[in-house]
Amino acid sequence: MKSICLVERVKWKFAGNMNPHAFDFGDVDNDKDNEFVIGNLKGELSVFKGISAANDGQPYVTCSGLGTITCVAVGDIRNSGKNSIVCVNAEGQCHIFDITSSNESDPTTHDENIPASSKKNNDIQTPAMRPIIIDSPKVIEKPTLTLSVPVNCNRILIADIDGDGINEIILARTDRILQVFNFQTPLPPIDSTASIKPSLIKGQPILKEKKKWCFDGQITSLSIAKDPNTSSPLLIVGQPGGHFMIIEKNEKKTFFPTQVSGDQSGEEFTEVSTEIVRGTVFKNGKYVDVVALITMDGKFTLYDLQSSSISNYELQGTHKLFGMASMDLCINDINDESLDNEILNDPEKSAKKYDNVFVVCAWNGCTYVIDHDFNVVKFEFEGRVCAFAAGQYAITPGHNVNCFLYVDFEDQITVYYNLRINTKPVTNFIEIMRGQFNKFDELLGDIVQDYDQEKGALSNGSYQSTSNITEFFHQCLYQLDDYKDMKAKLIETLKRKTREEEEKKPNELREKNELIEENGLLESVIYQEKEKDVEKSESRNKEQNQNQNKQDDLVLISEQDIIQDVETQELEGLEIENTLDNVIGGCDDVAHKLQLNQITNTDNEQFNTQETQT
Amino acid sequence: MTIKKGIHQHLFVSSFYGITCFVSAPGYWNTIKLPLDNKDIGEIISMDVFSSVHSDLIFALTTAHSGQNDDDPQSQFSLRIYSLGVLISNFMEDAIFKVVEENCQSIRLHFTPMQLVHTKIDKDGEDCIVLLLCGTDGGVHLYIEDKYTKEWKESPVQPYYPFLAGLADSESKILSLEIKEFGNVKFIAAGCQNGMLHISILKQNESTGDFEREQSSVALFSPITSISIFASSTSKDKPEEIHMLVTCAVEQAIIYCYVDKEILKHPLYLRECSKHDSVLCSHIMDIDWDGKNEILIGTYGRELLIYKQNVNSQGMIIYQLLWQRSFTHPIYRITGLDLNEDGIEELIVATQYGVHILQPNLYKAKERLLKVLNEIDILNKKCKEIST
């Protein structure tokens, strides 16, 4: 299990005890940036927007006197394309807030004076990180609307569960009853005349009960998913002990896991709370929904809706798990300018679509990020957690990024952002290089000892026995000296071979003439290079005498020449290659000596004898 | 603290009450907590791990006992040396357990120990590894292993390091000590608690074989936390430029350029460092595989900074901030080694509460390696072409 540390964080102020589910992420003011809404048991609701040092952790909007808030959701309940905040309390009231641009004309919020339409344009034109300055939280006296709902609701979901294109409000009650409502504004009477303004006729909107179901066990969580086969919506209701019910749009109910009696003991049916979230996995070219469950005692289950297969994983935590969320890490990757761009640019990687990950939190702050292959990354938040939220939030305007939010018992919310989480196990460099081996078979076969065996082992997926390849790669990257030596040796052999050939056929005058020409050319090159490098080498070798200095210059140049050599070859191909071959062959005496000098650098005697040769 | 064993390199990390070893292996690493009895040992102050001619694994600790009844407060400190002896083990895991089982030698110290380093000296014509221990008594203490009894004994510093012996007279307490050799030039640098930086450079004259000594000192006015003497390129044969990086608790980090020639005359300041509280540690490493060393700096302000050497328009050396990253806790130590034996060195950052292992961008490494391989490949092919 990998452990990570998260560095970038801010702290917000938020007082009071709360229901661990009375929060939601969502775009409450319809500016495409996500805000965070949270309510406590004292009836105080706070909306947080952006972060900046100026607002000192103060909320953007607050409202109080809302009863014992048990659940909060952000969604388009009116089906008007605009989001509202729905806040339900235990006393049977449902408060609806519409935080629209008209509400924002408060002079304390600088940014929001501009009408919504032009503001949006503005944001597009200048996506710069403009901090939102909030001098003090804006207090809303009362909700836009208050409707009555059943008492003791503890879970809310806003979603279209029957596929009619209209969002429903689904409320789960502590008495194991699940109710589905439609938000309806009574239509004006048919006999109304055009002269009467519609707003006057519009009656009090109502919540119309659409459906009602009773469950055997407590409803511990609500989620929706899309049936991978029919693409129709599914409502998923969490039941204690790691069970859940799928309700299809035709109200067909299926209880999962279907039969537990077979392979599992009877004791398994313990009454532990179950959290459910929907995840997505990229399979066969499209995203498919997966249901993930976590029980309080650490059993993590993935249920594949397509194949109806179940896979389990046991989280070895010491504390009870309670908060769960699904997160798409890929979004952070795109925004991350530094390292991950590189991966995205890589064709192998960018073609591969990302699966989502699941985030689970325990009461003691231990947070686990789990992917579909059950790779787990652990983060430890220091402090006990009252509520945990993970989702997308606009830290800076225009960018919704993944965040972890921890509500602690000290009246604070800690927000972690710029989460650079990679659940994948540590990648081996050899694995990344694996696809490239065939290209260099010849070279690696020549240089690396036991290359064929090691390559064979590698193709069987074993990284244990590739020590020679690894060592060679390490040399290429970290010991450029060795690599240069290797190059020098290669050129050395190259020259020796050419010379041998020359000796075989000494009568070819034409070639010799050519060689002389090239020799002159090379010398002029050396001269030019020498001038450039005089300064450098002087500072390097002050203590060396003039002759040595000269020698050293040449060594340096010869190295450069070798490098140039290769570069030109790459650029211009074979034509130049031939000429260069001749150059190297032609200036054999000089270059040969240089190479020797390089290899036996410390050997003064040999050094001197060569000196006399010139 | 890292140890090289054959081609494998392992990492030892110490906290107050224990030592953990990260044993590298192909594709993974093991973490092993050394089976040391805390009650026996007490708090660990400093640690060094190395291998010598006599032993594959020698493991030295300086410890402090929180003696509650001891009348003599000085006797609380001790130097403990664990040595693997003749037993040779192929597995580091095995070696670790054996080394702790083996009889440990404990030397009582009559001063508060600080940095513990090992270095190679020439003793009667033989290479020999000794331990150097800086103490609050102002001196540097040298411990040497007896060839026959395998016992470690304190020995005078004077014959081997007259420069360090000379420092013992001053009231300064040496916080950091760096001994490096590049070719025929030997450097000894000592940074003191009172901010004094002493450096001695020994050059061997090529023609006469005599040693020339140059010495210099400078007052930096704040405790010196780390010293690194390094060559700007990773090339082993002919280091071109040798610089010295000195970090101290209050001021910004300083690079003394061309320290072998200019000594302390050419200081260069790394200004960004001072924004992040005291600099606690530094490390030199080629992080981008270009054959040039980069400077890594870790601060109490939880920031890791990486500088790259460059040359400005006037041809002067400058250091540019290449990368930086925040951590959750103060950074105590930085090092680099290939922990999972895949050819790429990981960056290890030890902070107040943990060890962070950072892997470089492997796609950039791949790009770089392909370029190098291509170059060699072309030469290799040409070689073959001619020989046929």
UniProtKB/TrEMBL annotation, chain A:
InterPro entries: Integrin_alpha_N, KICSTOR_ITFG2, WD40_repeat_dom_sf. Residues 532-543 have a biased composition (Basic and acidic residues). Residues 101-122, 532-553 are annotated as: Disordered. It comes from the Eukaryota. Pfam families: Itfg2 (PF15907). One of its GO terms (biological process) is regulation of TOR signaling. This is Uncharacterized protein. It comes from Glomus cerebriforme.
TrEMBL record, chain B:
The keyword ATP-binding does not apply. Keywords: Membrane, Transmembrane, Transmembrane helix. GO terms for cellular component: actin cytoskeleton. Signal peptide: none annotated. GO terms for biological process: actin filament organization; cellular response to amino acid starvation; negative regulation of TORC1 signaling. The chain crosses the membrane at residues 12-29. InterPro entries: Integrin_alpha_N, Kptn, WD40_repeat_dom_sf. GO terms for molecular function: actin filament binding. This is KICSTOR complex protein kaptin. It comes from Glomus cerebriforme.
